[in-house]
Amino acid sequence: MELTNVGKVILGSLRATPRSGYEIKQLVDGSTRFFWAASYGQIYPELARLGVQGLVERESAPTGGRRRTVHSLTEAGRRALHDWLVSPEPLTMEVRDEGLLKVFFADTLASDEALAVVRAKRAHHEAVVARLEAVEPYAAAERAGGQAFPPLTLEYGLGLNRWIVAWCADVEERLSAGLPERQPRQERADVPSTR
Amino acid sequence: MELTNVGKVILGSLRATPRSGYEIKQLVDGSTRFFWAASYGQIYPELARLGVQGLVERESAPTGGRRRTVHSLTEAGRRALHDWLVSPEPLTMEVRDEGLLKVFFADTLASDEALAVVRAKRAHHEAVVARLEAVEPYAAAERAGGQAFPPLTLEYGLGLNRWIVAWCADVEERLSAGLPERQPRQERADVPSTR
DNA sequence: GGGCTCATGTAAGTGGTTACATGATTAT
DNA sequence: ATAATCATGTAACCACTTACATGAGCCC
């Protein structure tokens, strides 16, 4: 009975705390989203399947008068999570990086356009860094509360994206140094302004 | 008429050289696979669609007696490629990193198991580094031949994966320093050996 | 002759996103 | 009152992988 991709995040999210599907989604969006995403369309059906397989238990736990179902790991669920975590299977690693693909093909572009491609990639990763920096305080609190690993992955995301920003900056420099401006002396002083 | 994901790699692969579907697949597997993959099941149908859209032209170009169809960009195809490359649309960036997900949940594990998780991730990226180093000479040749950007992305892959390896090594150190071996003084001298 | 690589495709299935439907509760 | 958030789900669709089918030429 192989664990699905979504199954892995779900069991992991329930490792210490029973949660609702909604809360799992919140957690994923707020922390693992950058390296492992999940949508409602996957979470709810998978929670049902994990229930059938006996890996999670559901319990009604309304907040105020609002209906709410929290899920917690069964013993089998805890075992399945552990088995996956220690499994020596090769690790899934998939990337789809449009910015880098553009760089790959940038030799068809004029030098200023190629430069813009790299700048756009840098801007993207600078924005990611900013978003990660914004959640850093929460991670510090978590770390104080004994949870060391989630903050570690935040550190990872920050370091990695900063490395990418630096790489882009370096390439931008090399490009503007190596490739001279095209027609730097193209003033239009000869064309009279129409207004 | 929006360009699909596969469409992007295909048009890019044809930017300078007409190629067969088979050759496109070879190229992708040998270079962009680490950040943008594509399978035959996508490439052939998409080549047909791009033909209908007038973005590529097909020409029979058998090698020896073996049938072969090469595709080249039409003017419209060249324009579509250029439009995509300079488009300011937000860049697709998707990652699915199972190693990091395991690290995220590693607080449920015993300290030696958590250490093993990080080591496994490091091993994975060390293998990637080795594979990329193996193709470095080809990239050097390409660079000499005027194509500067594909080798740049190889550099990127190398640098990034080396950074990850270093991060893992650092975390491993911190883990083995900060978390003492569990029961370091559990010698069984009191239990007489049965043989 | 047998196995490998070149070469082109299709069919079935999987994994995932997006949009929608519904409804209660809380905050402004 | 109404907008935002909490909460649970489903249906349609899209992207992608895997496996298969087919066949020719190449190398030993």
Description:
The structure is a homodimer of 195-residue chains. With 195 residues, chain A is mainly alpha-helical. The first copy, chain A, has 2 domains: 5-86, Arc Repressor Mutant, subunit A (Orthogonal Bundle); 98-178. Helices cover 60% and strands 8% of the residues of chain A. Chain A contains 7 helices and 3 strands, in the order αααββαβααα. Chain A has a two-stranded antiparallel sheet. In chain A, strand 1 (56-60) and strand 2 (69-73) form a beta hairpin. The radius of gyration of chain A is 24 Å and the shape is elongated. Residues 183-195 of chain A have low confidence and may be disordered. Chain B binds a DNA duplex (28 and 28 nucleotides) through residues 4-6, 20-23, 37-42, 44-45, 48, 63-69.
Helical amount of chain A: 55-70%
Distance between the termini of chain A: 76 Å
Overall 3D shape of chain A: elongated
Using the coordinates shown, work out and report the CATH topology of the largest domain in chain A.
Answer: Arc Repressor Mutant, subunit A
> Structurally, how many domains make up the residues of chain A?
2
If strands are numbered along the chain, what order do they take across the biggest sheet of chain A? 1-2
Q: In CATH's first tier, which class of the largest domain in chain A applies?
A: Mainly Alpha
Radius of gyration of chain A: 24 Å
Number of strands of chain A: 3
Q: How large is the share of residues in beta strands of chain A?
A: 5-15%
Secondary-structure element order of chain A, N to C: HHHEEHEHHH
Which consecutive residue ranges of chain A, at least 5 long each, have pLDDT under 50?
Answer: 183-195
Oligomer: homodimer
Largest interface: A-B, 59 and 59 residues
- Give the biggest sheet of chain A: 2 strands, antiparallel
CATH superfamily of the largest domain in chain A: Winged helix-like DNA-binding domain superfamily/Winged helix DNA-binding domain
Question: What structural class results from the helix and strand content of chain A?
Answer: mainly alpha
pLDDT averaged residue by residue of chain A: 92
Number of helices of chain A: 7
- What is the annotated CATH architecture of the largest domain in chain A? Orthogonal Bundle
